[in-house]
Specification:
Blueprint (H helix, E strand, L loop, with lengths): L1 H9 L5 H8 L4 H28 L3 H19 L5 H32 L4 H25 L7 H16 L17 H4 L11 H29 L5 H4 L2 H4 L1 H26 L1 H21 L6 H29 L5 H31 E3 L5 E3 L1 H22 L7 H5 L2
Helix pairs in contact: 1-6, 1-7, 2-9, 3-5, 3-15, 4-5, 4-7, 5-6, 5-15, 6-12, 9-15, 9-16, 12-13, 12-14, 13-14, 13-16, 14-15, 15-16
Length: 410
């Protein structure tokens, strides 16, 4: 499940920006708008379908239906070349995909709970297969040349169809029927939103919003940035430029190691330090992009890939575990949906459009449709932004958990 879940995303998430810019000739704001669809979908789809999974339809069935719908929409999107038709199709495909991220977490946590297994220890080795799937997808689209064509969307559609069918064979998840005397909040399954009444959870969710923006900055423009070196004769033939997606996949390779190391860091240092390390790693990732290049600066780019592993896993996976351990199992899917709403919902919209504006301010399209200009200034701005987020989180988030026993205790 996890392998296919992230294989689907890996086929287009990193390479679609280059396809849209270099092949379809869309500008920075238009490219940003495609990645903002992730945020638009995550504003309500994960939370709403999380409620449905908690209350009415078993999570694995809802999960399968979403993937089948997404497969059809991706196949239609692959045939579009004009901006608006492609935008509409991709919006629909992302609407179907985004709820499946939270649902996949809920399905896994439900299965672990039924087996009485500790999620902090046993979930990361399961989730790591999602990263493996993402890496395989990136290599597939890079070495086949799909990254420069709509074939990346057809590949995503095929994987989504397979997973949609497979989902109906997954272990069944239970639903929580609303008691007759329950409040209207419980009846509608909106109890997860009451988590904002807890100061610690509210600060965590707001931090999730601003950290989620960093991920969309990376997704939308990392490959475009590396491809921009094609316009410089000295770098045009470099392996890192010719296989930019494969180079970026080093980030996911680092991510696999970070996922497996996550239980150690959570139990040794606690959730606050782990989340803070993620934010600082995002700042480092962007700063290294500002000074690196595919030539003599290649080691700096490779170091930025290592930073990505910490940046992504130490927030997204640790954050999901934090939500799991801090909320009632009866609102498991809804709480995970709320986490996705903040990171890949509001955060994605802020990150995608803001990043598009910054990139348009400092760079422009040349005659060969490569985006060239002052990339360093853009990356320094993104790095500074994450340093501010990290500082505010360090000052405001109060962690009461001091050791592993307290962390895993319900």
């Amino acid at each position: 499940m996890n392998f296919l879940q992230f294989f689907i995303w890996g086929t287009w998430l990193i390479s679609f920006g280059s396809y849209a810019g270099n092949v379809l000739h869309f500008d920075g704001m238009q490219i940003g708008s495609f990645f903002a669809t992730i945020g638009i979908a995550a504003l309500f789809m994960p939370a709403v379908l999380g409620v449905v999974a908690d209350r009415w339809i078993p999570a694995q069935k809802l999960y399968g239906a979403c993937h089948l719908a997404g497969a059809a929409l991706l196949a239609v999107a692959a045939r579009q070349t004009a901006y608006m038709p492609l935008y509409v199709c991709m919006t629909g495909a992302v609407m179907a995909y985004m709820p499946t991220l939270a649902l996949s977490y809920a399905i896994a946590y439900d299965a672990l709970a039924r087996k009485r297994l500790d999620a902090v220890v046993h979930f990361p080795p399961i989730r790591v297969w999602g990263t493996v799937g993402f890496i395989v997808a990136m290599w597939t689209v890079d070495f086949t040349g799909f990254k420069h064509s709509a074939m990346q969307l057809y590949a995503a559609a095929a994987a989504a169809a397979v997973l949609g069918i497979y989902a109906f064979t997954l272990p069944p998840c239970g639903v929580n029927k609303t008691p007759a005397a329950a409040s209207w909040v419980d009846a509608l399954g909106l109890r997860a939103f009451a988590l904002f009444r807890q100061p610690k959870m509210a600060i965590f969710f707001v931090a999730s919003l601003f950290t989620g923006a960093a991920l969309q900055i990376n997704n939308g423009f990392a490959d475009i940035f590396i491809n921009s070196f094609r316009a410089i004769p000295h770098y045009a033939g470099a392996a890192g430029v010719r296989h930019s997606v494969a180079l970026l996949s080093v980030s996911q390779i680092a991510e696999t190691l970070c996922i497996l190391a996550l239980p150690f860091f959570l139990t040794r240092f606690g959730v606050k330090k782990v989340l803070l390390a993620s934010m600082l790693a995002w700042a480092l990732r962007f700063a290294l992009f500002a000074v690196g290049d595919p030539g003599g600066g290649l080691p700096l780019l490779l170091l930025s890939m290592v930073a990505y592993g910490v940046a992504f896993d130490f927030f997204n996976i640790a954050g999901s575990l934090f939500v799991e351990q801090s909320t009632d199992p009866r609102i498991r899917a809804g709480a995970q949906g709320l986490f996705m709403l903040m990171t890949t919902g509001v955060g994605a919209i802020v990150g995608a459009y803001a990043a598009g504006a910054v990139v348009d301010r400092f760079t422009g399209m040349d005659a060969q449709f490569f985006r060239t200009g002052d990339w360093s200034s853009a990356w320094y701005i993104f790095a500074g932004y994450m340093l501010v987020v990290a500082l505010l989180f360090a000052l405001l988030f109060k962690e009461k958990v001091k050791n592993r026993a307290e962390y895993v205790k319900k």
